[in-house]
UniProtKB/TrEMBL annotation, chain A:
Keyword Transport attached: yes
Family: Belongs to the TRAPP small subunits family. Sedlin subfamily.
Protein name stated in the entry: Trafficking protein particle complex subunit
Lineage: Eukaryota, Metazoa, Chordata, Craniata, Vertebrata
Keywords: Endoplasmic reticulum, ER-Golgi transport, Golgi apparatus, Transport
Organism, scientific name: Equus przewalskii
Location in the cell: Cytoplasm, Perinuclear region; Endoplasmic reticulum; Golgi apparatus, cis-Golgi network; Golgi apparatus
From TrEMBL, chain B:
Subcellular location: Golgi apparatus
Keyword Ion transport appears in the UniProt entry: no
Protein name according to UniProt: Trafficking protein particle complex subunit 9 isoform X8
Domain Trs120/TRAPPC9 TPR region: 158-305
Main subcellular localisation: Golgi
Species per Swiss-Prot/TrEMBL record: Equus przewalskii
C-alpha cells in the first residue's frame, strides 16, 4: 500500500529511501524531498509544545493527484515519510499511524546495531524486509 | 452594481466607502446566486481589508510585482466578464499611491473591515466560488496568489501552502509557454516566501524545464541554465567541491545528480563547453559513490568528448551574473590513500658528521640539556620527517592509489606540487586497472635548491581535466609528514667489484642496508684479492673516503684477519672528479677451524653412509636416510671409480650437501645434523664506505655505501688428529698431523716449505713435522688487559690463541690444489689441545746434560775407552716456583736396534763416584748442577738413561717437565 518509504536524518538527508515502481524513482525522490518543507514547518510549529507531549505522527503532509504523503518525526528529529496511493481509500489514519510505529521500532533496532554508524545509509536487511512487507501488504 | 462602485472607490483610494460598498454587494449577490460576481465582491472586500491592515503592502519584491502586473493585462483579453477586471487592482499599487489610513477611519474599520482571520475565510470562499467556473481559472489563481501573500505576512505558512497546493491544480489550458514559465516561477517565488525552499526549488526546476520544452521552437537554454542555478540552494547543493570533502556525502544524491545532469546539458546547449566540463567533472567528483557502473562510463565518456574540445582547467569560471564556479580537482580519480615521502636509498642517504652535530647543539644553548628546548623542538618537528633529501638527487614520494572506476583509468601527467624549494617535478603517466586495489605510485622529482621542502599535493590529468589536488583537502588520507629538508649536493659513488654479484642478501638483522652484494667461494685457508672500483657518478667531486668493515657474527671461529686493506693508495687519487674511477683493493682471507670433530672421525671409520652423528631419537633420521642413500645414484665428478668404497660414499654425501645447501629443506636438515654442518661455512661481512665532498661536505654531511660480502668457505684440508712425538733432542719434537683432503681434487700439502705431501680426494695421511719446542713463557702478556677485566678463563684463552699463532707461523702449513691452481694456508691453531701444547712447550725446568762439557742433545758424544767422561746434569728453573730436591740415577744401556735393550752393562761401564746425583732445591730462575763421571771400558754405542727416583719426584708437577734427554755416547778405541 505504501508506494515509497523514506527515512530522513536530522540534517535532512536521506538515510533510506525506497519506492515500489523503481522506474520512476526520481519522482518519489522529488516528492519526498519537497515534503520536507511541510515537515519542517510542522515541526517548527510544534516546537513550542512540550517535548514529551508532542505527537510524533505528523499526519497528512500534502496530497497530490495520485498520492498522499504522510510524515512522522521522532524525538531525535529523524523523519519518516511515506507516500501512499491516494486511490487506496481503505487506508485509515490509524493504520498509517501503526505503520509508522512499526517503522519506528524497526529503525530503533537498526540504531541498536553496534556496527551501524549513525548517519550512514541504512543497509540493514531486517529493515529492508520490513519495508517490503509494508509495501506489499495490500497491493 | 454595488460591487462596481466598490471597485471604483477602491481605485479612488476611498477605503471606507469601498468597504461599505463591497459589503453591500456581497449581501446582494448572495441572494442572486451569481457566484462569480459574489467571488469578485468577496475578493474586493478582502483586498480593501488587507490594504487597511497592511499598509506597507504584501509584495516582497517590486520586480516580481511588475512581472505579475505585466502578465495580467495580457490575460485580460481572455476574460469572460468585465467585472472581474477589478481583480487586477493590486493592494501594493494602492499603497504606493500614498493612501494612509487616517484616524477618522478607525471607527469605520471596526464596523466594516474584516479581521485577519476573516480575510482568509473570505478568500477561501471567493476561491471556491471561482472554482465553479472553468473559465475563471486565471482569476482563481490570482486570488490564490493574493491569499498566499497575505498568509505569508501573517506567517501562516501551512495554510499558505494549502492555497498554493490548490493553485497548482488550477487548470489553465490556454496558457502560452512563456506564461507557463512565469506561472511556475511565481509559484516557486511564493513558496520561497513562505519558507518552503525545496518546493520553491522544485517549481523553479519545472520552470527551467519549461523553458526548453520540446514544444518551444526556440529553447531558452540560457534562461533555463539561470533558473537551474537558482534551484541549487533548494537542493542544498553547492558547486564548490570543498563542501563535499567533509566525510560522507549527505544529500539527495539522486535528485542532485539529476540536477547536475541538467546543468551540464543546459550549459552545453548554451554553447559554453568549459562550463559543462566544469559541471560534469563536479558531477563525477561529488557523486562518484552514487553513480552506477554504466553511468560512470557514460559520464566519463561524455567528459572525454567535451574535454577534447575544451580541456578542463584549474581556473575559476565566473558566470556573467557574478556566480563563481571554483575548480574541481579530481581527488577521487584515482583515490589517494596514503602519501609517503621516501627516504633516499640507503647508499645515497646523507648522514651528519657526529662532531658537527655536537657543535650544533652546543651553539644552540649553553645548557647540556634543557627540557624547554627539547619540547619546542618536538613540536616543531611533528610534521617534519627526520631524513633529508639531497639537492640534485632524484627524490621519491610514494602514493598509494586505487581506481574506483569499473574500467581502466589513465592518469597522465601526474606530478608533485611542492613549495619551499625549487623543485623539478618529473611527471609520470600511469594506467590503473579497473577497480584496482591499492596500487603504489612513485612520483619523482629533483630539488634544485636547498632548504625545507613541503609536498603540498599532486596534479593529474584525467579524462583531459587538469586537477591540482592538495593533500590538506583530501579526506581519509594517511600521511607521515610532508616536510623534508633538502641539504646541499653530495657526490655519488658507485661500486663495482671484481667478484660476481650475489643473490644472497645478508641477514636482515644486520641493520645496515646493503647496496651491493658480492659473493665468492673460497677454500678454507685461501686468500683472494677483491678489487673494488669506485666511480664517482655524481656531479660533485669526491673528497673524503673512509672504509670500515664489520663481520657479521658467525659461530665459526675465524683465525687471522678476514679483511685487510690499504686505504692510502686509494686516497692518493682524491679528490675524485665526477666520472673518474678509483680502485681499492681488499684482501679476503678465510681461515676457519681446520680441526675436525670426532663425529667426522666417526664418519670416517664408519663404512658407509653415516647416520651415527644424529641423535638417536631424531625425527629427521627417517627423512634423511633415504635422501642420503639416493645420493650415490648420481655420483659427483670428483669421486673416481677406483676409490675405496667408504671414501666414495663419504665424498658423495658431502657433495650432495654442498649442492643443496640453498634449499630450505637442507637448511632444516643441516640444523638437525651438527656434524655435517661443518662441510660448508658462510662468512658475511659488510664493507662500509663513508664518503663526502662538494658543498654537502662543507655542511658536514656524508654518505654511506655498504658492500655486502658473502664468502662461502669450502673445506680444504682437515687435521683429523694431532699428536706429538718427542724428537731426539729435548728442544725439538715431532708434530704428527693426520691431514684429510676433503675436497674433490688432488691436493698437496707442504709444511715449512720443504715436504710435499700429495693427497687424493678424500684421502687421509699422516704428516710429521719437526718443530722446535716453543718457549711460550717468553711471550709478554699484554699488560693492559691482564690485570683489569680479563678473567682467568679469558686470559687462558688469549694465551692459548697467542700460542697457536706462534706455532702456526712456525709451521707454515700450506696446501695447493694443482688442478684448480689454488693455494692457501692451513692453520693448526684450532686443534691444539692442552696435551699437545704441553708437549710442544719447553718445560720450565730445563735439563741439560753435558758430556765433557759439551751439551749433548741429539748427536752422539764421542769419547775414548778408558778415559773418564765427565757427565754434568744441569737444571735451569724457569718456572715461577722452586723445585726439588731431586735424585737422579744414570742407567747406561745398549740399544741392539732390534728392540732389545741391554741394561746389564756392569762390566762395560763403570761409574766414577756414585751413579746417583742429588740436586738441591732450585729457586725460580736459579740454576743448579751436579757432576759425575763415567768410564767406558769397551768401545760401542752406549745410551745413558737418566731416571728420577720416584720418591723424590714432586707429584704436582707435570711429567713433561721431567723429560730428560737420553744421552748417546759413542766410546771409541783409545788412541795410542
Amino acid at each position: 500500500m505504501a508506494v515509497c518509504v523514506a527515512v530522513i536524518a536530522k540534517e535532512n538527508y536521506p538515510l533510506y529511501i525506497r519506492s515500489v515502481p523503481t522506474e520512476n524513482e526520481l519522482k518519489f525522490h522529488y516528492m519526498v524531498h519537497t515534503s520536507l518543507d511541510v515537515v519542517d514547518e510542522k515541526i517548527s510549529a510544534m516546537g513550542k509544545a512540550l517535548v514529551d507531549q508532542r505527537e510524533l505522527y505528523l499526519g497528512l503532509l500534502y496530497p497530490t493527484e495520485d498520492y498522499k504523503v504522510y510524515g512522522y518525526v521522532t524525538n531525535s528529529r529523524v523523519k519518516f515519510v511515506m507516500v501512499v496511493d491516494s486511490s487506496n481509500t481503505a487506508l485509515r489514519d490509524n493504520e498509517i499511524r501503526s505503520m509508522f510505529r512499526k517503522l519506528h521500532s524497526s529503525y530503533t533496532d537498526v540504531m541498536c546495531n553496534p556496527f551501524y554508524n549513525p548517519g550512514d545509509r541504512i543497509q540493514s536487511r531486517a529493515f529492508d524486509s520490513m519495508v517490503t512487507s509494508m509495501m506489499i501488504q495490500v497491493c | 452594481m454595488r460591487k462596481h462602485v466598490g471597485d471604483l472607490c477602491l481605485q479612488a483610494g476611498m477605503l471606507q466607502d469601498s468597504l461599505v460598498h463591497y459589503h453591500m454587494s456581497v449581501e446582494l449577490l448572495r441572494s442572486v446566486n451569481d457566484f462569480l460576481w459574489l467571488g469578485a465582491a468577496l475578493e474586493g472586500l478582502c483586498s480593501a481589508s488587507v490594504i487597511y491592515h497592511y499598509p506597507a503592502g504584501t509584495g516582497g519584491k517590486t520586480g516580481a510585482r511588475r512581472c505579475q502586473g505585466s502578465s495580467l493585462p495580457a490575460e485580460a483579453a481572455n476574460r469572460h466578464r468585465p467585472g472581474a477586471q477589478e481583480v487586477l487592482i493590486d493592494p501594493g499599487a494602492l499603497t504606493t499611491n500614498g493612501i494612509n489610513p487616517d484616524t477618522s477611519a478607525e471607527i469605520g474599520r471596526a464596523k466594516n473591515c474584516l479581521s485577519p482571520e476573516d480575510i482568509i475565510d473570505k478568500y477561501k470562499e471567493a476561491i471556491s466560488y471561482y472554482s465553479k467556473y472553468k473559465n475563471a481559472g486565471v482569476i482563481e489563481l490570482e486570488a490564490c496568489v493574493k491569499a498566499v501573500r497575505v498568509l505569508a505576512i501573517q506567517k501562516r505558512s501551512m495554510e499558505a501552502s494549502e492555497f498554493l497546493q490548490n493553485a497548482v491544480y488550477i487548470n489553465l489550458r490556454q496558457l502560452s509557454e512563456e506564461e507557463k514559465i512565469q506561472r511556475y516561477s511565481i509559484l516557486s517565488e511564493l513558496y520561497e516566501l513562505i519558507g518552503f525552499h525545496r518546493k520553491s526549488a522544485f517549481f523553479k526546476r519545472v520552470a527551467a524545464m519549461q523553458c526548453v520544452a520540446p514544444s518551444i521552437s526556440e529553447p531558452g537554454w540560457r534562461a533555463c541554465y539561470k533558473l537551474l542555478l537558482e534551484t541549487l540552494p533548494g537542493y542544498s547543493l553547492s558547486l564548490d567541491p570543498k563542501d563535499f570533502n567533509k566525510g560522507t556525502h549527505r544529500g539527495w544524491a539522486a535528485v542532485q545528480m539529476r540536477l547536475l545532469h541538467e546543468l551540464v546539458y543546459a550549459s552545453r546547449r548554451m554553447g559554453n563547453p568549459a562550463l559543462s566540463v566544469r559541471h560534469l567533472s563536479f558531477l563525477l567528483q561529488t557523486m562518484l559513490d552514487f553513480l552506477s557502473d554504466q553511468e560512470k562510463k557514460d559520464v566519463t565518456q561524455s567528459l572525454e568528448n567535451y574535454t577534447s574540445k575544451c580541456p578542463g582547467t584549474m581556473e575559476l569560471i565566473t558566470l556573467p551574473d557574478g556566480l563563481v564556479l571554483p575548480p574541481v580537482p579530481f581527488t577521487k580519480l584515482p583515490i589517494v590513500r596514503r602519501v609517503k615521502l621516501l627516504n633516499l636509498p640507503a647508499s645515497l642517504r646523507p648522514q651528519k658528521m657526529k662532531s658537527l652535530l655536537n657543535q650544533n647543539v652546543s651553539t644552540k644553548s649553553p645548557f647540556i640539556y634543557s627540557p624547554i628546548i627539547a619540547h619546542n623542538r618536538g613540536e616543531e618537528r611533528n610534521k617534519k620527517i627526520d631524513f633529508q633529501w639531497v639537492q640534485g638527487d632524484v627524490c621519491e614520494v610514494q602514493l598509494m592509489v586505487y581506481n574506483p572506476m569499473p574500467f581502466e583509468l589513465r592518469v597522465e601527467n601526474m606530478g608533485l606540487l611542492t613549495s619551499g624549494v625549487e623543485f623539478e617535478s618529473l611527471p609520470a603517466a600511469l594506467s590503473l586497472p579497473a577497480e584496482s586495489g591499492l596500487y603504489p605510485v612513485t612520483l619523482v622529482g629533483v630539488p634544485q635548491t636547498t632548504g625545507t621542502i613541503t609536498v603540498n599535493g599532486y596534479h593529474t590529468t584525467v579524462f583531459g581535466v587538469f586537477s591540482d589536488c592538495l593533500l590538506d583537502n583530501l579526506p581519509g588520507i594517511k600521511t607521515s609528514g610532508s616536510t623534508v629538508e633538502v641539504i646541499p649536493a653530495l657526490p655519488r659513488l658507485q661500486i663495482s667489484t671484481s667478484l660476481p654479484r650475489s643473490a644472497h642478501s645478508l641477514q636482515p638483522s644486520s641493520g645496515d642496508e646493503i647496496s651491493t652484494n658480492v659473493s665468492v667461494q673460497l677454500y678454507n685457508g685461501e686468500t683472494q684479492q677483491l678489487v673494488i672500483k669506485l666511480e664517482n657518478i655524481g656531479m660533485e667531486p669526491l673528497e673524503k673516503l673512509e672504509v670500515t668493515s664489520k663481520i657479521l657474527t658467525t659461530k665459526e671461529k675465524l683465525y687471522g684477519d678476514f679483511l685487510s686493506w690499504k686505504l692510502e693508495e686509494t686516497v692518493a687519487q682524491f679528490p675524485l672528479q665526477p666520472g673518474k674511477v678509483a680502485t681499492f683493493i681488499v684482501n679476503i682471507k678465510v681461515k676457519l677451524d681446520f680441526s675436525c670433530q670426532e663425529n667426522l672421525l666417526q664418519d670416517l671409520s664408519d663404512d658407509g653412509i653415516s647416520v651415527s652423528g644424529f641423535p638417536l631419537c631424531s625425527p629427521f633420521r627417517q627423512v634423511v636416510r633415504p635422501r642420503a642413500e639416493s645420493k650415490p645414484v648420481n655420483p659427483p665428478e670428483g669421486s673416481k671409480p677406483g676409490d675405496p668404497s667408504h671414501v666414495k660414499n663419504k665424498a658423495s654425501l658431502r657433495h650432495g650437501d654442498v649442492s643443496e645447501m640453498g634449499t630450505p629443506a637442507c637448511v632444516l636438515r643441516a640444523s638437525a645434523q651438527p656434524p655435517l654442518r661443518k662441510t660448508l661455512h658462510t662468512l658475511e661481512a659488510i664493507l662500509n664506505f663513508k664518503y663526502s665532498g662538494g658543498p654537502g661536505h662543507v655542511e658536514g654531511y656524508y654518505r654511506n655505501l655498504s658492500l655486502g660480502l658473502h664468502v662461502e668457505v669450502e673445506p680444504s684440508v682437515f687435521f683429523t688428529r694431532v699428536s706429538t712425538l718427542p724428537a731426539t733432542s729435548t728442544r725439538q719434537c715431532h708434530l704428527l698431523l693426520d691431514v684429510f683432503n676433503s675436497t674433490e681434487h688432488e691436493l698437496t700439502v707442504s709444511a715449512r716449505s720443504n715436504e710435499e705431501l700429495v693427497l687424493h680426494a678424500g684421502e687421509c695421511q699422516r704428516m710429521a713435522i719437526q718443530v722446535d719446542k716453543f718457549n711460550f713463557e717468553s711471550f709478554p702478556a699484554s699488560p693492559g688487559e691482564k690485570g683489569q677485566f680479563a678473567s682467568s678463563e679469558q686470559l687462558e684463552e688469549e694465551r692459548q690463541e697467542a700460542r697457536g699463532l706462534e706455532i702456526n707461523s712456525k709451521l707454515d702449513v700450506r696446501w695447493r690444489i694443482p688442478s684448480l691452481k689454488r693455494t692457501g694456508e692451513a692453520s693448526v691453531e684450532g686443534l691444539l689441545n692442552q696435551l699437545v701444547l704441553e708437549h710442544l712447550q719447553l718445560a720450565p725446568l730445563q735439563w741439560d746434560v753435558l758430556v765433557d762439557g759439551q751439551p749433548c742433545d741429539c748427536e752422539a758424544a764421542a769419547c775414548r775407552v778408558g778415559d773418564p767422561v765427565r757427565l754434568e746434569v744441569r737444571l735451569t728453573n724457569r718456572s715461577p716456583r722452586s723445585v726439588g730436591p731431586f735424585a737422579l740415577t744414570v742407567v747406561p744401556f745398549q740399544d741392539h736396534q732390534n728392540g732389545v735393550h741391554n741394561y746389564d752393562l756392569h762390566n762395560a761401564v763403570s761409574f766414577v763416584g756414585s751413579s746417583t746425583f742429588y740436586l738441591d732445591a732450585v729457586q725460580p730462575l736459579g740454576q743448579s748442577a751436579c757432576l759425575g763421571a763415567l768410564l767406558f771400558l769397551y768401545t760401542g754405542d752406549f745410551f745413558l738413561h737418566i731416571r728420577f727416583h720416584e720418591d723424590s719426584r714432586s707429584k704436582e708437577l707435570p711429567p713433561s717437565w721431567f723429560c730428560l734427554p737420553s744421552v748417546h755416547v759413542r766410546a771409541l778405541e783409545a788412541q795410542a
